[in-house]
Amino acid sequence: MKDKILIAYSIPPQGLLELEKDFEIVYPDKEFFSTEELIERIPDCIALLSIFNKEVPKEVIEAGKQLKIISNYGVGFNNIDIETASKNGIVVCNTPEAVCEPTAELCLALILSISRGIAKCHHGLKTNSDFEWGVMKNLGTGLQGKTLGIVGMGKIGKSVANKAEAFGMKVVYYNRNKIEDPSYQYLDFIDLLKQSDVISLNCPLTDETHHLIGKKELELMKDTALLINTARGPVVYEQELVDALKKNTIAGAALDVFEHEPKIHPELLQMENVVVVPHIGTATIETRIEMGKEASENIISFLIDGKEKNRVN
């Protein structure tokens, strides 16, 4: 009899083919298993393939009497009770490789959309037959020669930097540790906020980065600055961002993630200088399949080869 792997969400089955060779897959017959259903099914499973937008609370982990590993479908893992997992000797892994390029691509798309007013013009043309055209109408801001400040120079941050350079942007960064690549200038956090024309948040959500951007930080930015968040919503104090945008403390924001998602602060939805998308940083079919493969590889590597891959606890 094969050991069982519990799959929390109905991800593309193409990503689970290798896993199916050695294990019995417990797959949802709907979009996802509820918390109660996870608790019911997990006792005889040795691994859980979880997903970034569904909680794996203490109750689920403690019900997993045979649970050895949780492999999270996503780079973020704040959906998992890491403390309980660690206390119970359970390895927790993520999928940092698969998510890198699509998230960086979206980051650049958001920079272009907010800097050139693409979303505003798109909405205007579709909803208003009198939307104004003209040589001096709908003026945006170019990227050539502008300074991009990246907060969090991990794999995604580096990919954003590489792509931004193709647009002629100067890249500076702030990171917990300086990186070895001398191509990019390291600045302390305060100087980065003061000097950057565009600020891209690419850091993980931790106790230290929760509300990293609030009133004080926003007031340090240029009044022409644009804030891009493809990291995690709670990195930004959303109400204080709304207040700053209303006061023109900064020029605009483009957000893929939100502090209380799927709820979005209603005033953000009304602002022309804000672009919002529904957490689609990794939302390509290719990426979803690759994330499944990487999450599966974490499980196979640990349970069959005895090697810890992408461990985060």
What are the defining features of this structure?
313 residues; alpha/beta; Rossmann fold; 2 domains; 7-stranded parallel β-sheet; 5-stranded parallel β-sheet; 12 strands; elongated
Strands, helices and their partners?
Blueprint: E1 4-7, H1 17-22, E2 24-26, H2 35-41, E3 45-51, H3 58-63, E4 69-73, H4 82-87, E5 91-93, H5 100-116, H6 118-127, E6 147-151, H7 155-165, E7 170-174, E8 185-186, H8 189-195, E9 198-201, H9 215-220, E10 226-229, H10 238-246, E11 252-255, H11 266-270, E12 274-276, H12 285-303
Parallel strand pairs: 1-2, 1-3, 3-4, 4-5, 6-7, 6-9, 7-8, 9-10, 10-11, 11-12
Order of helices and strands: EHEHEHEHEHHEHEEHEHEHEHEH
Arithmetic mean of pLDDT:
96
CATH topology of the largest domain: Rossmann fold
How many DSSP H or I helices? 12
The helix content, as a percent range, equals: 25-40%
Q: Please write the CATH class name of the largest domain.
A: Alpha Beta
Biggest β-sheet, characterized?
Answer: 7 strands, parallel
- Number of strand elements: 12
Order of strands across the biggest sheet?
Answer: 8-7-6-9-10-11-12
Family: Belongs to the D-isomer specific 2-hydroxyacid dehydrogenase family.
GO molecular function, one term: oxidoreductase activity, acting on the CH-OH group of donors, NAD or NADP as acceptor
Pfam families: 2-Hacid_dh, 2-Hacid_dh_C
Keywords: Amino-acid biosynthesis, NAD, Oxidoreductase
